[in-house]
Amino acid sequence: MEKQKYAVYVRVSTDKDEQVSSIENQIDICRNWLERNGYEWDEDCIYKDEGISGTLFLERPAIQLILEKAKKKEINMVVFKSISRLARDMKDSLEIREVFAAYNVRLISIEEGYDSFKAGKNDISFEIWSLFAAQYSRTLSAGVSAALAAKVRRGEHIGKTPYGYDKVDGKLVINETEAAVVQKIYGWYNSGWGFKRITQELNDRGIPAKLNPRWQVTSVQRLIQNCIYCGDFILNQYGTVKVGGRKKQIRNPEEQWLIFKDHHPPIVPRETWEKANSKKHKATRRKITPWNELRGLMKCSVCGCNMVILQGKVRREAKTGERKYFAYVKCSSYRRAGQHGCVNHVPIRYEELRELVVEKLQEKGQTLTMNLKSEIEKLKEEEIRNLQRKIETMSEKKKSLVDLFLEKLITKEEFEQKRNELDRELQYSEEELFILQRTEHVQQNEQNIKEAFEQLENTEQDLYQVFNTLIDEIVIEPDGTVNIKYTFQQPVQV
User: Fold this and answer.
1) Which of 248, 283, 318 lies at the terminal end of a domain, its last residue?
2) What number of CA atoms fall less than 13 Å from residue 132's CA on the CB side?
3) pLDDT digits (tens, 9 = 90+) for 194-224
4) Which residue segment(s) compose the domain that 92 sits in?
5) Which ranges form a coiled coil (predicted)?
6) Is the full-model pTM beyond 0.85?
7) What residues are paired with 358 via a beta bridge?
8) What pLDDT digit, counting tens, does each position of 101-146 carry?
9) Which of 49, 268, 374, 444 is 20 to 30 A from residue 92's alpha carbon, by CA?
């Protein structure tokens, strides 16, 4: 038997049942090929990317892990059912092949009968099959779009059922109870109420949203701006583009939209919707949103939600007459739902918080230079220990799960569902542990942190990237206490 240094790669793009069963099909095909060619089967050599598109290279942890193992010469062969399972983007397919070729790793695509060792470096069959896989993905996408458009033309609704409607035989019908609420929302908004006031009123009256017990500001805003309430439906309003190996949703130009007028029964008259969404009406409400360099880092200590910036009242300087805007930090959950969402923090001005954070970072930068590497290594070691404990705990849970099933305390369906959940969590933790244990991890972190501290010398520039490199999170208490957790040190209170 050959020495076990191979990897079996399998992928499905959705979590639908028919695709999940496809995982087993791919494994069976690969196992059959391996055993027929004299290899001993090993379940631990399977690497799965589940529910991930073949056009997303960087977001596939399993393929990234295989590439790392190839670089470390921990594997010498990768087996997969077909090239479309490896990637559906031609550029990614060729890039993956080049990496494996550089480290003398053999590629086997069973369906196409492709073997990189037999084909040699100049064989074009891999490129041709990769082109077919990429073209298939585009053709499939176009076919799906055409099928969706045909459904909409027949009066069917695509997507989630919006508030105010029910879905009957694929079509939207008015839910009278919810429709009355929609009409009130438009009435309030057109009479001068803002999104926040409407949200507060709905929650005070105990009116539930479609799927949540509480309304949020963003929910009210989307409802008012959605032309579905005047009877129209827009298809192809949003699309996706690939940026740096990842897909990003974008808003398509209006000329690409497919607008279906009077597609379903309206809840509000078209004139009412147009008034709410007219530029003149919106202009009276527009506020300047301050730039937030600490976005995503500030957290509420009570609910864990992000702290965001709210624009305060405009003040005019007595001497110069200059208009000044003051920005304050507020819990996003409280902002969306008021006291129904969270508590109201004491007012903290954003500029003062930023100055405090910069000051504390500069102090750290003066004292940390000599011990930076050891601090990062300590944090890394602690993360590794936590991950190892987590992996051990999940492994024990898997063993206990088998006992529960054998003792008939859980059904077969419950056993398989829980086992699959644990397997996915285990795989993610093991991949994270693998990356942390790489020797270059500390070196790269040390270099990034040193460069970030150097950029702190100019506090007038945009420090968003600097803050994200040096700070893990900033936890803000309701009384205004600020706790900073650094990426290179244990958290301290300031």
Assistant:
1) 283
2) 11
3) 888 898 899 989 999 988 888 988 889 999 9
4) 6-141
5) 377-462
6) no
7) none
8) 888 888 888 888 888 887 765 566 676 666 665 565 555 555 556 6
9) 444
